[in-house]
Specification:
Elements lengths: L8 H18 L3 E9 L2 E9 L2 E10 L13 H17 L5 E10 L2 E5 L5
Parallel strand pairs: 3-4
Antiparallel strand pairs: 1-2, 2-3, 4-5
Length: about 120
């Protein structure tokens, strides 16, 4: 049994965020912030690639038995993420555009869904 299967849910969530950040870095994104509060909610990762600001929601599932991680972003959360992206875009003079991505971590494998809430 892999060691990561025996850690707590909160530790697994932090591990998934770290995996997501490394995945973004490997694809040329700069990580601006992690776990930042915007619009009264926490944004998991804020990154930039070129002039695009990217608000990332990280969802993790140890297995697929209870559904896919990316299916866990409901309508209320989608609206809040869009609002956060607008606020962060307005506050960043270097960014020209913003988008919301979802990074679904299944086990230890990330899946980057670009412009997930278009």
């Amino acid at each position: 049994m892999p060691r990561w299967t025996s850690i707590s849910d909160s530790e697994y969530g932090r591990l998934a965020e770290t995996i997501a950040c490394w995945s973004l870095r490997l694809r040329g994104y700069a990580i601006i912030a992690r776990n930042v509060r915007v619009c009264g909610r926490e944004v998991d990762v804020v990154a930039r690639r070129g002039r695009t600001l990217v608000v990332c929601e990280v969802k993790a599932r140890r297995s697929g038995r209870r559904g896919l991680a990316e299916e866990m972003v409901g309508p209320w959360q989608q609206r809040r993420l869009r609002e956060a992206a607008e606020v962060l875009l307005a506050a960043d003079p270097r960014a020209r555009s913003a988008r919301v991505d979802v990074i679904a971590v299944h086990g230890l494998r990330p899946r980057h869904i670009r412009a997930a809430l278009s």
